[in-house]
Recover the amino acids of this structure.
């Protein structure tokens, strides 16, 4: 089986610092891949490299058998990879509905079709009641949800979620986990960065661990939990996790 | 190359270098403000114009030498800058608006008012300070009798250049050695981090705007013995300051010095070899070239080299 | 009712010359409409797409000179400048966009400002083509009466209004606003930001260029200092939108009525004439501080102030 996403020996330098060094892994269709690691391990950088915001300094990335490591973000998105941002970036002065319509326009030129997709996505993510709220005025939990809705409305085959659970209260957290399961059921492959250990262990099929920009583990949640390297890397963080 | 041709070239390079030194002073003020406040001050040239009129007024009414008036004009411009920042720019930075460029447009408004006030008070006539050393110059043949070529060094240009070197050195000392200077640099590097480290960011902004204004005001005093003055001259110098900043790299003080000198020499070359009227076009050609080929400015080239090693 | 407002207004305006108004008033109305066109075009790029241009005089000037040069060098009617300016201005806009659109925010603003100055200086120096500082004079005026000029600029304005409305309601408009709100987010949602910014710039430039070509025909005289003016063209274009309302349909129209009347009013006060720019500058500062999104843009705020006035 050919992988959906293939990251081959990717490094990224900022000045003299290696934010990522020689990271290699694959992602198969239908999987949920968790990406964890201590603060500053290079998780978000890896997303930015995959999604095309930073070109990799070394290495190549393939998505659906196409080389994407030299493409601009909008072309990668068109190919079917959507992402959310850790620091949410809503289109501030647009309503929630308009935010999602913008994404839906990627696959259509018609206003009616775009709106239809947007409304469906809002129902799917439970944001329908908020559709006329200007997104600037949305509480954080809902804004995180809006990030997800926007990514979904672009009609992706794969979605990169960057800390979509951070700062949520327990009810919101449970809802979000439900949505992620639903996304998986609809056949979309997911890669997710998360600090919340219980959640990531529960929902991931496989987990990749980064530390200081290097991949230190790649396996099932069970294997990861018992990996001494991971335990060591997390020694400080594990108690709060 | 024949003797006279070499002479013209060398003379052009010398005047370009002297001009560049003064440009650097204008550019540093702009780049400081840009670095700390992340806004472009489109009233920069107008502030210089105000400095020039102060020097002009002091010369005409009190017979104070323009070089001496730096001591008076720079503090006055500092106060003006502080007031503008405190009561106009800062409030606008807090207002929520669709276009974040509001602050830039605000500085345009400030510039318009300053230029217009100058027209009302001094009329739009061209002015200059007829200092008695205006045409004084040193000649190479005075020092070296048998020199094959003749070069001259204008007295006011040289003095202005030296003054700008002294002011730049003073600024460097202030930014690297004093607590306030260090706080300003910290704010420029990372606003939020500086805030967390206990730097009074808002105060630093006010001081920076004052400092930038004082620098460009001082530059105005240095320009007036060698240049003429009219109310609308500001716009041209705002653009020069901006071109220097782009050329040198945004927010980089060293870049502003290098950018100023490069621009000075280049302008001098264009006006000698292509024609006086084309000097502004040359200025913008170099600006466009910088945007396309070295988007990070000249300083980024040095940095890249160092990394390669 | 509200839907038909533009149509009703058009009908009323079309009948205006039948009433028989004097030449001076006609001149003012023509200026207001011309500035509305420029304001609407600036608003498309600046207000909706968020790319604040300080160099719209560049496009205005290129349009004006296209008409002027066609007349002066090729001996054909300057009216051909209207269609021809579309081609030339698009060309210039593509070059300027290639250079400037890689910059963001205030840096884009300043780069466009520099472009305006570059074109002015070039026009001053390329005398064989532009007659330099002497300017170009259209010696035979098409009409002595202003009525036809009025209808032509009214038609251009109506087309512009319609075009802006269509664009903003479509995918293009959504993409423009998305780019204004967050360029990184827009890019990650599959929007080719460079492409759409270029489209916005070209549309805006072409409309301003047509206004420029009209200006040549209407005024009969152009020179680089007038048509490439920073303060009197580029900045006024910004002010019209800022005063009237950023990213609103009617904002530029209201802004240009206010600005043209103000400019004329100030000019007619004998002692204030010299302070003309001061007045504009102060106005600009006041508007930015108190009505940062313009009269139409800050409607709720305006209402609040009015209400506050009634019940203190």
């Amino acid at each position: 089986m050919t992988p959906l996403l293939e990251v081959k020996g990717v490094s990224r330098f900022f000045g003299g610092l290696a934010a990522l060094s020689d990271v290699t892994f694959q992602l198969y269709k239908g999987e949920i891949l968790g990406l964890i690691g201590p603060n500053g391990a290079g998780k978000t950088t890896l997303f930015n490299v995959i999604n095309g915001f930073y070109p990799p300094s070394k290495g190549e990335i393939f998505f659906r058998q196409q080389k994407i490591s030299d493409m601009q973000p909008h072309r990668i998105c068109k190919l079917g990879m959507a992402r959310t941002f850790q620091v949410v970036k809503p289109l501030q002065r647009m309503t929630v509905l308009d935010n999602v319509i913008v994404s839906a326009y990627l696959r259509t030129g018609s206003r009616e079709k775009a709106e239809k997709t947007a409304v469906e996505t809002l129902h799917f993510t439970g944001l329908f009641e908020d559709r006329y709220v200007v997104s600037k005025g949305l509480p954080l939990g809902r804004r995180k949800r809006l990030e997800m809705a926007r990514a979904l409305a672009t009609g992706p085959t794969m979605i990169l979620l960057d800390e979509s659970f951070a700062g949520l209260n327990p009810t919101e957290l449970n809802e979000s986990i439900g949505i992620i399961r639903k996304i998986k059921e609809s056949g979309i492959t997911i890669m997710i960065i998360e600090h919340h250990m219980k959640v990531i262990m529960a929902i991931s099929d496989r987990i990749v661990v980064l530390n200081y920009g290097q991949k230190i583990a790649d396996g099932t949640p069970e294997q990861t939990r018992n990996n001494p390297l991971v335990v060591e890397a997390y020694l400080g963080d594990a108690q709060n996790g | 190359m024949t003797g006279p041709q070499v002479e013209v070239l060398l003379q052009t390079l010398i005047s370009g270098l002297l001009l560049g030194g003064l440009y650097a002073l204008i550019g540093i003020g702009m780049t400081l403000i840009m670095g700390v406040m992340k806004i472009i001050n489109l009233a920069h040239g107008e502030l210089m114009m105000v400095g020039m009129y102060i020097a002009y007024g002091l010369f005409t009414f009190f017979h104070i030498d323009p070089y001496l008036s730096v001591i008076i004009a720079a503090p006055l411009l500092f106060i003006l800058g502080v007031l503008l920042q405190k009561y106009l720019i800062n409030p606008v930075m807090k207002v929520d608006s669709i276009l974040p460029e509001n602050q830039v447009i605000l500085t345009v408004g400030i510039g318009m008012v300053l230029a217009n006030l100058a027209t009302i008070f001094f009329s739009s006539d061209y002015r200059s300070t007829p200092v008695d050393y205006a045409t004084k110059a040193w000649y190479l043949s005075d020092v070296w009798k048998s020199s094959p070529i003749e070069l001259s060094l204008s007295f006011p240009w040289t003095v202005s250049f030296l003054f700008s070197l002294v002011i730049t050195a003073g600024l460097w000392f202030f930014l690297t050695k004093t607590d306030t200077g260090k706080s300003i640099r910290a704010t420029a590097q990372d606003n939020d981090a500086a805030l967390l480290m206990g730097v009074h960011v808002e105060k630093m902004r006010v001081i920076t705007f004052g400092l930038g204004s004082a620098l460009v005001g001082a530059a105005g005093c240095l320009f007036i013995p060698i240049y003429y003055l009219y109310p609308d001259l500001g716009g041209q110098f705002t653009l020069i300051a901006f071109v220097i900043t782009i050329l040198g790299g945004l927010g980089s003080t060293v870049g502003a010095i290098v950018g100023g000198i490069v621009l000075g020499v280049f302008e001098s070359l264009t006006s000698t070899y292509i024609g006086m009227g084309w000097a502004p076009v040359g200025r913008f050609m170099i600006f466009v070239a910088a945007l396309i080929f070295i988007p990070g400015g000249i300083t980024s080239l040095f940095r890249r080299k160092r990394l390669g090693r | 009712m509200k839907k038909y407002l533009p149509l009703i207004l058009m009908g009323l305006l079309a009948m205006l010359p039948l009433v028989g108004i004097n030449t001076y008033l006609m001149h003012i109305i023509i200026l207001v409409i011309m500035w509305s066109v420029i304001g609407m075009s600036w608003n498309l790029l600046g207000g909706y797409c968020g790319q604040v241009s300080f160099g719209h005089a560049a496009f205005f000037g290129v349009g004006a000179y296209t008409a002027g040069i066609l007349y002066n060098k090729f001996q054909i009617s300057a009216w051909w400048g209207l269609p021809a300016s579309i081609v030339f201005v698009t060309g210039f806009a593509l070059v300027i966009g290639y250079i400037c659109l890689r910059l963001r925010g205030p840096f884009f603003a300043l780069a466009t400002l520099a472009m305006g100055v570059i074109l002015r200086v070039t026009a001053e120096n390329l005398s064989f083509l532009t007659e330099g500082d002497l300017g170009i004079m259209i010696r035979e005026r098409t009409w002595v009466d202003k009525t036809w000029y009025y209808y032509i600029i009214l038609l251009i304005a109506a087309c512009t209004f319609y075009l802006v409305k269509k664009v903003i309601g479509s995918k293009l408009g959504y993409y423009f606003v998305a780019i204004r709100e967050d360029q990184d987010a827009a890019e990650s949602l599959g929007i080719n930001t460079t492409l759409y910014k270029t489209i916005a710039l070209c549309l805006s430039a072409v409309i301003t260029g047509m206004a420029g070509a009209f200006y040549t025909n209407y005024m009969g005289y152009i020179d680089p200092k007038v048509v490439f003016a920073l303060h009197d063209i580029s900045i006024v274009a910004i002010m019209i939108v800022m005063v009237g309302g950023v990213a609103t349909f009617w904002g530029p129209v209201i802004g240009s009525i206010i600005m043209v009347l103000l400019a004329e009013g100030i000019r007619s006060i004998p002692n204030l004439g010299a302070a003309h720019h001061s007045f504009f500058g102060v106005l600009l500062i006041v508007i930015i501080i108190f009505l940062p999104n313009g009269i139409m843009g800050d409607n709720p705020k305006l209402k609040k102030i009015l209400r506050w006035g009634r019940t203190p």
